[in-house]
Amino acid sequence: MKFDTKIAIAVREDLAVWQKLNMVAFLASGVATGRPGTIGEPYRDGSGRQYWSMFGQPVVVLTAADGAELKAAYERAWSRGLGLAVFTEQLFATGHDATNRAAVAAVPSPELDLAGFAVHGPRNDVDRALKGLGLHR
After folding, report:
1. pTM of the predicted structure, to 2 decimals
2. For position 134, what pLDDT does the model report?
3. Do residues 20 and 4 make contact, with C-beta atoms less than 8 angstroms apart?
């Protein structure tokens, strides 16, 4: 099935695996709360047990070779008016939501030390914004 919109998460390639996995989880939660229409219906198994809803469409995870490539994609996404969630390098050292938000708030946009970001929007806009980033392997 082809969707009109796309959910993508872009991460820096040079990060440790645990950092990438942790960040992807946080960024996905940003899309889920920032774009409520992305969530599907609850799941139910054959025994009748119900499970939480998840995204109603696939999520692509991409990598940027370095911070400059990631920042360029972030700027393209921002300039297209796409919804974003950000994860900065400083968030790996914080311990909870309030300190996370304070760490991001302390830095002007052009100086954010991005580790990754999530984006949701029209498929063509997302594709253009993230052009050049590779699929995560």
Report:
1. 0.93
2. 87
3. no
